[in-house]
């Protein structure tokens, strides 16, 4: 049996809950990573208008697939290529949409990587700049409180949201239709203003994801404040450190773990190289002893990612990661960590002299893979703030077609 908020749920009831979480085929019904990336692809101009928010079971999917098949053949004859569509302005549009929908933090890594392969420079500063001027207007979980993706579609979908944002977008960007983004979304109507909000009734005045910096994350980290408890926006607390994921699993729920609601949970070695592979461990579970006290959110910091469906005051993508000797590697139990989300700051209250002493005594972790693909990955994958992609895919110009002899 499982106890939740004082109620006992038997095994049969728990199984019914598990079997009912996802009602149909398709991706997560919230504004998770899949929903976010679909919206980004459409805003970039890389899908037909309206393609990103169709619920999985609707016959509209089949009609859209037919239209896509026809259009892609036409594009081949017209020689319309992704390089004609993916520009700096189109990536700005994509970031704006991601901020307005309260999208997944994973989008930051994906967009930086995609832009790099398209020969466009996008960095965390660009996300921060756009976040500061873009309100969250999609009232869809987890940033919103009431609605799911089906409701978003019925309210007008992404086209309606983009038309709401038209003054913040580059409407002259090309798309796969052969028309501009502005032409694709012009006049799209919001059917339910409780789902897609007017700009003057936004969930928050700034975007769904904030970029933080400080001596604990010199190259940046990210947080989704729209999905976190407001009381934690400014918080200072003592660190409770887990060296890796097995350590977290082994000790998190032990009775002798010294942790309070004011503690800051810290997970190391969960980044691109430390995981390896940048796993979604960033929504660290709240210890059972605190759950039993009614605690539902607390500050958690890691160099990991988290699912787009996750929520809470989770500081993610800390860069450089601990595995390569980033400052996160030197955090110890009891160190005071200050989080100031409005000021975009994450600070470790340890002197530079003490940090240097810890750095000098630090032993780098062992290499996960001495050969093969794992070794290639460890030698060439970039850090989170650079897109966690192979560095050699972001260098130079176009690759020519091979000569045929």
From TrEMBL:
InterPro entries: Dihydro-acid_dehy_C, ILV_EDD_C, ILV_EDD_N, IlvD/EDD_N, Sugar_Degrad_Dehydratases. GO terms for molecular function: hydro-lyase activity; iron-sulfur cluster binding; metal ion binding. Residues 9-184 form the Dihydroxy-acid/6-phosphogluconate dehydratase N-terminal domain. It holds the Pfam family ILV_EDD_C. Residues 194-388 form the Dihydroxy-acid/6-phosphogluconate dehydratase C-terminal domain. It comes from the Bacteria. Coiled coil: none annotated. Keywords: Iron, Iron-sulfur, Lyase, Metal-binding. Belongs to the IlvD/Edd family. PANTHER family: DIHYDROXY-ACID DEHYDRATASE, HYPOTHETICAL DIHYDROXYACID DEHYDRATASE (EUROFUNG)-RELATED. This is Dihydroxy-acid dehydratase. It comes from Entotheonella factor.
């Amino acid at each position: 049996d499982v106890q939740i908020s004082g109620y006992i749920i038997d095994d049969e009831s728990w199984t019914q809950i598990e079997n009912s979480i996802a009602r149909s085929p398709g991706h997560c019904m919230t504004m998770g990573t899949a929903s976010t990336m679909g919206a980004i692809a459409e805003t970039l101009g890389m899908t037909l208008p309206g393609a990103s928010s169709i619920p999985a079971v609707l016959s509209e999917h089949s009609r859209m697939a037919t239209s896509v098949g026809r259009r892609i053949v036409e594009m081949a004859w017209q020689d319309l290529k992704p390089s004609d569509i993916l520009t700096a302005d189109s990536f700005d549009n994509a970031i704006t949409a991601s901020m307005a929908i309260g999208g997944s933090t994973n989008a930051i890594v994906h967009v930086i990587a995609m832009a790099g392969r398209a020969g466009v420079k996008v960095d965390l500063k660009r996300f921060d700049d756009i976040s500061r001027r873009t309100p969250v207007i999609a009232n869809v979980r987890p940033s919103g409180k009431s609605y799911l993706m089906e409701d978003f579609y019925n309210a007008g979908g992404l086209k309606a949201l983009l038309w709401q944002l038209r003054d913040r977008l580059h409407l002259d960007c090309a798309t796969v239709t052969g028309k501009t983004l502005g032409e694709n979304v012009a006049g799209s109507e919001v059917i339910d203003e409780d789902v897609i909000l007017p700009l003057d009734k936004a969930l928050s005045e700034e975007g769904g994801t904030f970029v933080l910096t400080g001596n604990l994350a010199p190259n940046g980290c990210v947080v989704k404040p729209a999905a976190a408890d407001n009381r934690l926006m400014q918080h200072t607390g003592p660190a409770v450190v887990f060296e890796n994921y097995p350590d977290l699993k082994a000790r998190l729920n032990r009775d002798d773990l010294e942790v309070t609601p004011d503690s800051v949970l810290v997970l190391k070695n969960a980044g691109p190289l430390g995981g390896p592979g940048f796993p979604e461990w960033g929504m660290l579970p709240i210890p059972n002893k605190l759950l039993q006290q009614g605690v539902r959110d607390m500050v958690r910091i890691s160099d990991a990612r988290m699912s787009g469906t996750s929520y809470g005051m989770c500081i993610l993508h800390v860069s450089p990661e601990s595995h390569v000797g980033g400052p996160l590697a030197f955090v110890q139990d009891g160190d005071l960590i200050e989080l100031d989300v409005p000021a975009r700051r994450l600070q470790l209250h340890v002197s530079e002299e003490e940090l240097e002493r810890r750095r000098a005594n630090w032993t780098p972790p062992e290499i996960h893979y001495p050969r093969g693909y794992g070794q290639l990955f460890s030698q060439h994958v970039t850090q989170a703030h650079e897109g966690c992609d192979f560095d050699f895919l972001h260098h130079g110009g176009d690759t020519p077609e091979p000569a045929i002899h």
